[in-house]
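Researcher: Re-running this chain for the archive, since the previous output was lost when a drive failed. Same request as before.
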Amino acid sequence: MQSIKEKIQSVANSQDLEKLKVEVVGKKGILTLAFADLKNLNGEAKQSRAKELNLFKQDFEALFEAKKGEIRTLELAQKLQEENIDVSLFVGQRRGKEHYVNLMIEKIIDYFIALNFELCEGGLVEDDFHNFEALNIPKFHPARDMQDTFYTQDGKLLRTHTSPVQIHVMKKKTPPLKIIAPGAVFRRDYDLTHSPMFHQVEGLVVDSYGKVGFSHLKLILEDFLKYIFGDIVVRFRSSFFPFTEPSAEVDISCVFCKGDGCRVCSHTGWLEVLGCGIVNHAVFESVGYKDVSGYAFGLGVERFAMLYYGINDLRSFFEADLRVIG
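Model: Regenerated structure tokens:
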């Protein structure tokens, strides 16, 4: 036992310690063979030898575990020392950059602030009235199926669009109004072109009845889209939204193929970029407005950023892609 104890104390690493263990208690180890020889003994000699071997085994296991812990501590300290990083070292002038989504939001805001739009923001958690009912989306309305919503246990929800900001503002202020509402929104969806959290910017203009109409909406959106994407063609297609009537989807000529047709635009030459329309009178009724007219529009910031910066996977905005977030 003394020689085994001396060997354990002299071991310097985990590999050698495991080899010693095999040498002692392995299939052909010293202790294993000694136990096998017990069959050749009888009576008190066998009992005495068995007791001696069991004590030896207990002592060996205790010494082995103690040495194993000691070596593990030393090896961990050595590894930490080898992998130590001096965070104070100067490694160059590489700087981080602002996220593409934030850059696009700022670019959009700059345009509308220059036209005297007021920047308004709201909470991420809303109630059913502000997120749906006040926007002419009553319970069981099929439009709710388009917005797979995150609900909380107390009946609240994570807003599915930034339109609730419009309702809050109209309930507090009287016309005329010109607001822009950027912010994060949430829907239960995730793939190449959808994310459970993304960003929208919505605009609302309200004035006395007859002072604003679709021609004003069309003019400002055409100018805005050319401000973002440059030399493009803009078209309006009839559509449906519960909170606007009439409603339209807005397309631009493909920024990649210049309208000739490519994989990005599904060979149509057009890219859908936002929705808009004249505010439905039911929305004004829900906030107590009378004798007014207005228009609204909404866009997805990530959609704009993907087109503007040439990014083909929406998930790049939220994952560790250093080309986007580095």
